[in-house]
Amino acid sequence: YMHAQLRHGRTPTQLEQILSSNGAPVQAKQTHKSNDEKGTFAASDGNARPLTILYGSNTGTCQAFAQGLAADAPSHGFKVTKVDTLDSAKDNLPTDQAVAIVTCSYEGEPADNAAHFFHWLKSLEGNSIKTQYCVFGAGHSDWKNTFHKIPTAIDDILLARGGERICSRGSANAANGDMFSEFEKWEDEVFWPAMSKKYGGDGGATDSAATQSLTVEVSSVRSSHLRADVYEARVVDAKLLSQPGSSEKRHIEIELPASATYSSGDYLHVLPINSHESVQRVMRRFNLAWDSVLTIKAAVGTILPTNVPISANDLFGAYVELGQPATKRNVTLLLDACTDEETKKELTRLAGDAFGTEISEKRVSLLDLLNRFPSVQLPLGAFISSLPPMRTRSYSISSSSLVSPHRVTLTYAVLHQSHMSGMGEYVGVASNYLSKLATGDKLHVAVRPSNQAFHLPTDYEKTPVIMICAGTGLAPFRGFVQERAAQVEAGRKLAPALLVIGCRSPDQDELYRKEFDAWETTGAVKILRAYSRKPEASGGSKYAQDALWEHRQEARELWDAGSRVYVCGSRALERSVEQVCKKIYLSRAQELGKDKTEQEAEEWFEGIRNVRFATDVFT
What we know:
Elements: E1 30-32, E2 49-55, H1 61-72, E3 78-85, E4 98-104, H2 115-123, E5 132-139, H3 149-160, E6 164-165, E7 170-173, H4 179-199, E8 214-219, E9 231-240, E10 249-255, E11 267-271, H5 276-285, E12 293-298, E13 309-311, H6 312-319, H7 328-336, H8 341-351, H9 355-360, H10 366-372, H11 380-385, E14 393-396, E15 407-413, E16 416-418, E17 425-427, H12 429-435, E18 442-448, E19 465-470, H13 475-489, E20 497-503, H14 513-522, E21 526-531, H15 544-550, H16 552-560, E22 564-570, H17 571-591, H18 598-608, E23 613-618
Parallel strand pairs: 2-3, 2-4, 4-5, 5-6, 5-7, 19-20, 19-22, 20-21, 22-23
Antiparallel strand pairs: 1-8, 8-12, 9-10, 9-18, 10-15, 11-14, 11-18, 12-13, 16-17
Organism: Aureobasidium melanogenum (Aureobasidium pullulans var. melanogenum)
GO molecular function, one term: NADPH-hemoprotein reductase activity
Keywords: FAD, Flavoprotein, FMN, NADP, Oxidoreductase
């Protein structure tokens, strides 16, 4: 299944290496230029103050923030000397220039490309740091005990070890669904004013021209490009799992390179391509021919391919996010490019108090707004430079490396529904991309480890496991049970395993029923089911948490034997299972004549979280 926000894995691919170009542009070119054809700089390179930008990012969001900050720097009189991972600054944190740090927390742990830096930073003593710095943190408030733990710790340690804080730490909450707007607000209202006060220069909000620093030439030649930070894999099987009338759920099997390895419970990061329909919306809006080729010339740093022809289909299909919700800065950009008074009035309203409810919450993209307001004449370069880079999507691997060491399977739901704004359809970029792949097709992927707690116990003979899921949350547990079945077949004795599955009905969307029945027969697992549309077929249990409560005695016995508990599914499922676990804890205490409070149950649960209770949750 897919995480709308996945939590464990490395940074997405750097979209920089251009491997080939199959021709030069034709002489007659249609040129789309920004308002400022030479780019926007507040100071020449000789007068610009140096700035280092460091990021820690697994899924690409913080990296996109860092790249955006770098793109805005010249308009404020700063020259970015480096945009790189935090790990690149281990033992080498600059002291001769300002350092901006953008990083995240993953259940209280640093991003993969920030872990070495963080551990190095914690090891320092005394006033050994002379860096002038600021920190922006991203996280998800559902992990309340570790919310912004890493950016907060970095900020505090740098200050305690002699660093000079330039401005107050900024923060973004993924639970709000609009982290890009939160970052822009901090950048415009806190970061740049503080930088201007300390170093001089323009500290006001970024001039809209600064985001229009690309000059784009359009011609009619194609070129091909390949990305460098993921490896090529091949589809060996793809099939539909669900029945007509239910939400579409699919299975895909992918052959990895011989050098790639994985463990049950890990993730596969997939670098998707935007749908043909989404790309065509851009082509129509900017009146581009189907074979148009773009040559991007940037006055500031960009991860897009520059000074080389690239087909418009390639650029809009593979390099940028077209469905990212618009930010206030995006709306202001449209306002600046608008001459129609009625449209200006509406855009002004949307950039004001209506932004949260009508743009952010409804996930209206910049492209959606451009199609809604056809009178806005936004330059093509301004549009491209406002789009975030394409990010990888993370899927739980649903197979066992013990059974197929170089092949992984994914089990996922295809997101295709009415847009919350009422404007057309909303499609999940990666799930729809995967759903169109067939046997023999190539794609770009990378295996990334999951949270260490979300793996099968190594002492499988002694430690029982309880797995609870709903829908495509079954994915990692298919891998777990497949691995246990292989161990049973090899003659190994395993501790008990209990799997609780929730779905709508046995004849619509129950996944892999024959497989799991066969595995249950071998003793690899015991399965409990809950059917929300046919509870009479599952002993009255509508949801997975109901079945867990109904069989609490069995679950409690496994817990007393030292079991590990795993939950995979929606945030609502995780919360419901958490409540049932606390309820079982209190009922057990009552049976033993102990008077336990809800607060004590809460403290008990927090003590087992990420130790004996692990989650893999999507939003």
